[in-house]
Amino acid sequence: MSEAAKEPIAAKGAALEGGSEDETIVAVENGVVVNASGYRDQLKRQYGLVGLAGIAITVDNAWVALGSSISVSIRMLPPFSLCSIKHTTELEQPLTWKKVNGGPPGIIFGLIVALFYYSFIGLGLAEFASSIPSAGGVYHWATIAGGQKWGRALGFFTGWINFYGWMFDLAALVQIAANISVNMYVVYHQDTYTFEPWHVYVAYLLILWLSTTIVIFANRVVPYTQNLGMFFVIAGGVISIIVIAAMPKQHASSYFVWGSFDENNLTGWQGGVAFLLGVLNGAFTIGTPDAITHMAEELPHPRRDLPIAIALQIGLGFLYAFCFAIAISYAITDISALTLGINTYPLVNIYAQATADADGNPNLGATFGLLFIIWCSTILCCIGTTVTNSRIYWALARDNAVPFSKFFGTVSERLSCPIPATLFVAIIATGLGAIPLGSPVAFLNLAGSFIILTTTSYALPFAGNILSGRKYFPKGPFHLGKFGMPVNILAVLFIILFNIFYCFPYALPTTEETMNYNAVILVGVVALTSIWWVAHAVRHYPGPKVMALYIHDDSALGSEVSPEAGETVPDKKAQ
């Protein structure tokens, strides 16, 4: 191949600073157009800015996520609860599961803190996406940031950690949707319904495989489902906030909403530590900024649109979640009713309190209607998250980073979907959803590890970019310039700080139920990835093709290096 044929456009600066009319073209190899991932396009670029914003806001689903994860500040649990309004053994649950952690002030101010430190994360990810819009996302960015020497290993571990985090998030979201489904039935059958864990699992399977079927066989309508999801998140959020603010016959005091943290901190931790632990609720609310970056190869203008969508996701997500948090806090009249039992869904009780008449009689229709809004947006969120997960695993498979890569890296161009990767994601999620049948504590900890795993996968490319002097990423339309280094450094420091606190026990004294296993899960994920690295990647993982496209200042670029040296470069043959 001639030098001209294999030289990437990225190295010349064209297409990355306005030099190309088509920003999706990064190189041309043997007459084949190559995108930012180093491959020819196989998926339809069907998402415009509105569609991208739709999937960003729907997958984030911020105010719904806050309501569904409110248990972190209302009671000291990981940010997910299992089910239902009424459970015959609620009062038999250990008191250690009923530790209130700051109440409404913990929710509201924790959300503000989460917005502050996630803003640095969002800025860093937006700059990466504008520079190199790859479906691999943080996996490919970590590879590039690590350079020729360390990029292969850094990207491999980043990609797998990110995938595990999103798998646990998918399981948690489907579980939340299943909880809501069961609770919608319970609203009208409280006197006759007896909760059984398998009820939730049946709903879980129906929702998961409905989402998978839509993603595979109706991919062309997925942008419309996410637009609809955006409608439910935005319009549904406005309706819910107005109803919750206007309907209560009595409201909580302003002191309860804004100043009762100490009275509602029953965790055993001092106030500052308890507050930082509760920031996890806010992090889960807005903590999905990389979700849409994995859609890069389905956008006609990814370098321009991805940063905008990330900003909308974090900004609008915070705004709606903040207003919703205030509304539900004023609607709480009996906080003790929200702390009963491991198998409760606190938002249902808040809705019941907010819509009850002056005598305390529940308005079942209003409660059901508010739950229906959440149910619709959450179902559509499950579809978008299934898309995200399938694209992450597919990106890893294309680069021979997973078992049976050739099979899982295939795409149905007719359906515009990586079918094997999507089915794999659904099968793994099916297994994860069965865990609560045997151990609710294990599932709650797996689901709660989403934030630690994903933010760790963000910190790795940021750290690599810092140590390499930010020299590998060409300027995109959104470039931080002189602010890039401090933004990256602050993002890494905040991630380390908060992830340490997110590993603390939920309450003191610590019991088996209140123990926090996030650190164990992170170590376990790294250990599993290390085993796969040694067994497979050391000799058979060449590293993604982006290495040859963007790491162009090393003499080894474009040459074959022995596997024993640990530096195998990608095959230049376009796929």
Automatic annotation (TrEMBL):
InterPro entries for this protein: AA/rel_permease1
- Highest taxon of source: Eukaryota
For this UniProt record, give its keywords in alphabetical order, as a comma-separated list.
Answer: Membrane, Transmembrane, Transmembrane helix, Transport
Q: Which residues form a coiled coil?
A: none
Q: What is its main location?
A: membrane
The Swiss-Prot or TrEMBL record annotates one GO molecular function as: transmembrane transporter activity
Question: Where does the UniProt annotation locate this protein?
Answer: Membrane
A GO-annotated cellular component: membrane
Give the record's membrane topology: Multi-pass membrane protein
Where do transmembrane segments lie in this chain? 47-66, 107-132, 153-178, 198-218, 230-248, 268-287, 308-332, 368-394, 415-435, 441-467, 487-508, 514-535
Stated name of the protein:
Amino acid transporter
